[in-house]
Write a structure and sequence with these properties.
Blueprint lengths: L8 H18 L4 H31 L1
Helix pairs in contact: 1-2
Amino acid sequence: MDKGQQVTEQEIETSLSSLARLIDRYGDAYWPVFERLERELGIRKQRRRRLSAHLQNSRRTL
C-alpha cells in the first residue's frame, strides 16, 4: 500500500477478523491493535452516518 492511500472500512473489517483469530489462538497480545481498529471503524461509521443525516436534511430544505 502506498503511503497516501486510504485504508478502507472493508480492510479494517478483514483485519479485525484476522486479529480475532490470533487473539483466540495465541492470547491477549493483539488486543491493543484490535481495540484501535475497532475504534477507527466506529469513528468512520459514525462520521458517515452524521454526514448522511445532514445531507438528507439539507435536501429536504431545498
